[in-house]
Design brief:
- With 436 residues, the chain is of the alpha+beta class.
- Among the domains are: 174-284, no CATH class; 297-433, Trna Endonuclease, Chain: A, domain 1 (3-Layer(aba) Sandwich).
- 38% of the residues lie in helices and 15% in strands.
- A five-stranded mixed sheet has the order 8-11-12-13-14. A three-stranded antiparallel sheet has the order 3-2-6.
- Helix 13 (386-402) links the parallel strand 12 (373-379) and strand 13 (407-413).
- Helix 10 packs across helix 11.
- The chain is extended and about 80 Å long.
- The relative contact order is 0.10.
- Residues 173-186 have low confidence and may be disordered.
- It comes from Faecalibacterium prausnitzii.
Length: 436
Amino acid sequence: MNNAGFTDHDYRVQEEAAPVEPLPKVEQTIFPAQPTNEAMPAASAEEEEFLDFDPTLLGSTLAKASVSPSVQNIFDRSEKEQNDFDVAMQQHQNDPLSDLPLEVQDKVDASHVNPEFLEDVHTLKLPKFCLKVQPSLFSLYDSEELSKENLLSNFTLKGKPSAIDFGHLDDDLAQVDLEDCDTTTPRISKLKDDYQQYMNRQFPLLPGEDKLRICKDIIHKSLCKMNAVDDNELRRYVDGIVDNMNREELDALERMPVNFAAKIRAYVMQLQEETARENFYKWLETEKIVCEPRFQLTEYITLPDSTSSMSKSLYQTEGKMDGLEYKMALAMTNMDNIRWWHRNPERNKFSFCLNGFRNHYPDFIVRTTSGKIILIETKGDQLENAESREKIRLGRAWQDAAGKQAYRYYMVFQNKDLQMEGAYRFDEFLTLLREL
């Protein structure tokens, strides 16, 4: 087993099975006993057709039938093992270390929840956006957690604009990282010099039609891994873009096709976000999207970088914070109405996010002594942009869908007054927070 890669951690102790009692022997003849003529009265035609059969009587008789102790023993043990498996599975899913190799788990520092807040962790479930669905044979639930794929179920490239501005492209060749990752932004980097020299030397030698076909293939392959895009539609969309290029753009395309692919990919992603945003707010209004308690905090978390222990923190240590985040945490340690606060890690397996048309990870999860849950996103004044406004709108939509009496969302700037509902300056927000 060791040679196969197993360690002494790869086992669990199995309870010894209780001895199974042998089933009693039942004597049965092959043929039933032949009744005498006196015991078999003449049957009428109606009796032969079982017209007097009572199914309810049969059901009650079967319900009263007793199961032998040995068979019941087997049923009980099977049910117990199934329950044990379900519990073990749930513990594994809630374990922040479950994704790490066994040999690493013992070496990772874990920050445990402070004992006085342990019950909160066990009982609190934060609402997430869910999509109503029809129950099926494979699902007993009438809703599922909302995903970007749900919001793109009706996405199509048919009729979508394709007038892309290809100006200001870098003359250096680039490559697009197509590996699946959490972020939806493609990773672009310059090609190695030897490959770039090869492309510059060999590509111009090809016939014009071959160069155009190869360019289309390069663009198509860089986009074909995108979710919710029909492959045939995508190919026609790419063909239409290239066929409508002028001579100057075609010359540039032949020099750096991967750069054009990255530009088109970013444009298609923008079209997808517009569709996802439109569907999200429309379905929220029609209650096709609802908020349901789904996310549960864990008893401990793992942090690559942590801060020193602070008063009223949910965990013994919290994640590293920048200047404005630290000021917010420090201010909450001195508020009588704050029960606990937690620095929500970003893009972690067990981080809480607002799963709308984009995933938004607020900086803080706060619980007041009155039971309110408050999500706080801190922003430096220089970071105010259209994305900030989208996050505020998403956060307030979550607040309204989850229930404003129990849940709140705020974005806090150092000094900037955004003049938008849900956005506050730092000092102004602290005054509000003390009253919640």
